[in-house]
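Feature request, filed as a ticket because there's no other form

It would be nice if the structure record came with a short human-readable summary line next to the tokens. Right now we just get the raw output. Example of a typical job, pasted below so the devs can see what we mean:
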Amino acid sequence: MRKIIFILSGIGLAAAWYVAYLSALVQPPLPPAFQPPTNPYAKGIYAEGIVESDQPSGENINVYPEVSGTVKQIFVAEGQKVRKGQPLLLIDDSIQRALVEQQESQAEAAHALLEELRAQPRKENLDVAKSQVDAAVATLKSAQDTLDKQKAAYEINPKSVSRDALDSAVNAAAVAAANLEVARRNYDLVRAGAWIYDIRNQERQYTALVKQHASSSALLGKYMLVAPHDGVVLAVSATVGGFVSPQGDYDAYTQGQTPVMTLGTPAASLNVRCYVDEILVTKLPQFSAMKAQMTIRGGNVKVPLQFVRVQPYVSPKIELADQRTERVDVRVLPVIFRIEKPENLKVYPGELVDVYIGQ
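Raw output as currently delivered:
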């Protein structure tokens, strides 16, 4: 039994020595997946860059709707060329369209009433008023004849006509005279037509309804997003049936708001927006003599750059990452270069690159 223990102990010591030997061996380092960018200049400034479309000012065009709603139809696809004014996306406008039609009908009704006021007096109403005057004249004549007969009989024989009958005849004549005066004034009123203040009030109501309809029609046009100018659709974030708002479209991956669409220039025309640390701004060469070179990450492809312009505003460095988490105590100066792109180079807007600017 004691021999077995010694044998096992020896085997354990040998195994431990072998493990220690293997642990002491130095493994050769793995080769890098790609070579890090190197400075091609004797003195050069490093800057991070992002590829974007070649715009005369600003960056890629982010398209946001001015109204909220459900996406009904998308007319373009990513990578498609578009012309200025071409429809891009339609938001469900059924409610707004019904409102526009309702306000159009209200404006038409107000205009019809205004035309009615302007067309007064109506011949038929004038004829009726004239007939009422004629009837009042006839009624007055009948009442006056009756009164004259009563008075003549009373003068011949006071007992032939009662005082009450005579008074009734006098009152009937007075009422008929008053009714005639009312009929004549009503005829003058009908013949004068609509009151000018009623016409002006209706004109203002009609104008207000027309402007309200124009405003609603203009808002209806906002439900159709169109291309602001010629370009290429770089990205479409919205989907049919999804909800969009002036803040954009909700991205389930980033849990933030993104543009509904992003437009740019054709891939043959690309820029690189470099962010130079404010500490290095004083070391930048003269713009007229500025030269730069970019390296595409993941490879050794180096592409010369042509200076375009400087955006003369130093801002917090939040453009290349999540604005909610990135530090903002580093401020950078944007410098834009144009890519002298070879035919076989594959590079896309939004891609990060390493840039060296020669001093």
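Something like this underneath would help us a lot:
Helices lie at 2-24, 94-119, 123-156, 163-192, 196-221.
The first helix runs from residue 2 to 24.
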